[in-house]
TrEMBL record:
Pfam families: Plug, TonB_dep_Rec_b-barrel. This is Iron complex outermembrane receptor protein. The keyword Repeat does not apply. SUPFAM superfamilies: Porins. GO terms for cellular component: cell outer membrane. The lineage of its organism: Bacteria, Pseudomonadati, Pseudomonadota, Betaproteobacteria, Burkholderiales. It comes from Pusillimonas noertemannii. PANTHER family: HEMOGLOBIN AND HEMOGLOBIN-HAPTOGLOBIN-BINDING PROTEIN 1-RELATED (PTHR30069:SF29), TONB-DEPENDENT OUTER MEMBRANE RECEPTOR (PTHR30069). It is found in: Cell outer membrane. GO terms for molecular function: siderophore uptake transmembrane transporter activity. Belongs to the TonB-dependent receptor family.
Length: 672
């Protein structure tokens, strides 16, 4: 079962990039000051020699607080190219230019956080209170992140204190008995520093939008004003200790403990498809070490070593009382862990070059069991390795280039029942940039990226309806992008990007002939198998504008156009992403102490999977208004109150799963 990926990185891509006329830059947020940013947690740092601008979008903590974005899913969706969906498991799913979380992994200070079994994460479980930045990279994302960044990457960067004693405290309350409390404290003593944080986000439910009950027939559980079984609790504790023995070297140990629980609101659409689920725990724990050591004047050596644990418990009930267990399903328990390490060597020994060489090793282990069952625990283990190379080159004049390549390998070392397998992949990228001015740049990029199939992709029998496929090969995408980023006029930041991604070997379900089907005892029914049979194309436009209009007024917008096509079978739609999406804001500051902030989130509608007889349904577009006032009586105190979904709009991101209606909130923060 040892299979090689025969398609390597096309040499023509690199040659084409060398000849390409640069005309783009990834749309990105304005540059962020280094204060309170844990720079070791950033995978891509501007080179000491190279004059290239950073090719990642940056969402700073100040912006996250300003828009009252409590979770990572809420935060990233205000960026161009990003949309959010919900699934039947009440999970917040992020799509980046049409690529989902399996193809766009999430990292914490460069440490991968995705669940070993299926590659997903619930972005609604990751809170933002202890972050300094969220960094989002798209098609030409740096290969230094490691494997599986076919569609990009999302890196959550924590804080680093800059003063002897600093921190903040915040509290808040919102409709649905939503409560939050968070505290961050830090000290920097020169030779060493300490950063710690604790947060609590809890809600009993959320209000349903105006008109929800007018067309819901039947409404299986939600007969009142609030969504039932929509409770959630997320507690988080983080601590980081760092040593800075000199001006260049740094060593840090970080620990993060997340503890969550949630209910799964029942389906409220036309189908008889209600699930009565609850998660009594959804916990994640990460311990990691990061270091940076200068070797002479021209070389730097970095290490990341980590251990990540994830466990959850899913309970099934027979009805909306959530008392009687479901007759056919026993509680499902996941107990996963990951061991990993990476090493990066940076060399500036050659004039006008900054060379990066990175090695990655990741050991994923998945244990799955059913409480009360006689079935043995299902154990799986994957080993993933990679080597990556990138070179940042300063060319004559205002030209710059970035070239990169990587080789990756994944091997199934342990499988519960089916045979093990091995596969590999090659990635590469090329980017050419031209500085129009010190603050403006155009560029063009080509990238060839892959994503390894997960344990679930290869081995899940889907409750007897599917036949595993250990020989699944990596999905592959070729990205092309052009654009501009910079300050074209006074008070304005403008970014625009045009992109296209061609995807091959896309993993999709195929129906097996009865002669080949091995779906337990269900061979008289349909038997599916995940296969590399898909081809798709994603293309679009992204625009971002931030403008200071006067001393009192400012405004901004982030617009995305995304056109996805299934080239293998155009009749099969690619779902869960809108074609048009807009986030806009306007700010009025009548004085130094007061600010009024208005926001608009709008989508044109999206197609979602529906039923076998009617495969797709189109959800209506929507526009959601937000408004809040901020009073800052002193520099260290902020008080605010506002409303989300001002018009109480009833809307959905997935069929049968309504989003919150009008929500009133109030927050207070003290900084020291």
């Amino acid at each position: 079962m040892n299979q090689k990926n025969k398609l390597a990185c096309p040499a023509s891509m690199l040659a084409a990039a060398l000849m390409a006329l640069p005309s783009s830059v990834l749309a990105a947020a304005p540059a962020l000051a280094a204060d309170n940013v844990f720079q070791l947690g950033s995978v891509v740092v501007k080179g000491q020699q190279s004059g290239t601008l950073n090719n990642e979008q940056v969402m700073a903590s100040a912006e996250i607080e300003r828009y009252d974005l409590n979770t990572v899913g809420e935060a990233v969706k205000v960026l161009p190219g990003v949309s959010v969906s919900r699934n039947s498991r009440n999970e917040e799913m992020v799509y980046l230019r049409g690529f989902d979380a399996r193809q766009v992994p999430v990292f914490l200070d460069g440490i991968p956080l995705y669940v070993p079994y299926d590659g997903y994460v619930d972005f609604g479980r990751f809170t933002t209170f202890d972050l300094s930045q969220i960094r989002v990279a798209k098609g030409a994302a740096s290969l230094l992140y490691g494997p599986n960044i076919m569609g990009g990457s999302i890196n959550l960067v924590t804080r680093k204190p800059t003063r002897e004693f600093e921190g903040d405290v915040r509290i808040g309350y919102a409709t649905g008995n939503e409560r939050k409390a968070a505290v961050n404290v830090g000290t920097n003593q020169g030779l060493w520093y300490l950063q710690a944080g604790a947060s609590w986000l809890d809600a009993d439910s959320f209000p349903l939008g105006r008109g929800f009950h007018d067309f819901r027939q039947p409404v299986p559980t939600d007969t009142g004003k609030y969504r039932e079984n929509a409770y959630r609790t997320d507690k988080k504790f983080s601590v980081k200790i760092g040593l800075t023995p000199n001006a260049t070297d740094e060593y840090a140990i970080g620990y993060v403990n997340q503890q969550g629980e949630k209910g799964n609101p029942a389906y409220t659409g036309r189908l008889n498809n209600s699930r009565f689920w609850q998660w009594p725990y959804w916990d994640k724990e990460s311990l990691y070490f990061i270091s940076s050591t200068d070797i002479g004047q021209d070389h730097t050596l970095k290490f990341r070593i980590y251990h990540d644990k994830y466990k959850n418990r899913l309970e099934f009930f027979s009805d909306s009382t959530y008392i009687t267990p479901h007759a056919r399903n026993l509680p499902s328990i996941y107990n996963d862990e990951t061991y990993g390490a990476s090493m990066e060597l940076i060399s500036r020994a050659f004039k006008n070059h900054e060379l990066h060489l990175a090695l990655h090793y990741k050991d994923d282990r998945h244990h799955e069991s059913e409480e009360g069952s006689n079935n043995p625990t299902q154990k799986y283990r994957d080993i993933t390795k990679s080597i990556a190379f990138e070179d940042l080159i300063d060319l004559p004049g205002a030209w710059h280039m970035r070239l990169g390549a990587s080789y990756e390998q994944r091997e199934a070392r342990e499988v519960y029942f089916w045979p093990t397998g091995k596969t590999d992949a090659t990635n590469c990228l090329a980017e050419v940039m031209y500085d129009l001015s010190p603050v403006s740049q155009v560029y063009a990029s080509l990238a060839y990226k892959t994503r390894f199939p997960t344990i679930k992709d290869r081995y899940s029998a889907r409750f007897g309806s599917a036949q595993p496929n250990p020989d699944l090969q990596p999905e592959r995408a070729q990205h092309m992008e052009v654009g501009y980023r910079g300050v074209p006029w006074s008070g304005g930041n403008f970014e625009v990007a045009l992109f296209q991604s061609n995807i091959r070997n896309l993993i999709q379900n195929a129906v097996l002939p009865l002669s080949e089907a091995q779906c337990g005892d269900n061979n008289d029914e349909l038997c599916n198998q995940a296969q590399n049979i898909g081809k798709a194309r994603h293309r679009g436009l992204e625009i971002s504008l931030q403008q200071e209009i006067t001393r009192q007024w400012s405004a901004g917008l982030a617009y995305s156009y995304l056109d996805r096509k299934n080239r293998s079978d155009p009749s099969v739609r690619l779902t869960d992403t809108p074609r048009h999406r807009l986030f806009a804001h306007v700010s009025w500051k009548p004085s130094a102490q007061w600010e009024v902030l208005g926001t608009l989130e709008a989508e044109s509608g999206r197609y979602v999977s529906y039923s076998s007889s009617e495969p797709y349904t189109r959800l209506a577009g929507f526009g959601i208004l937000g408004l809040k006032g901020i009073w800052t009586p002193r520099k260290d105190i902020s008080l605010e109150a506002g409303v989300r979904n001002l018009t109480d709009r009833n809307y959905e991101l997935a069929d049968g799963y309504p989003m919150p209606g009008r929500v009133w909130f109030a927050n207070a923060m003290y900084r020291f």
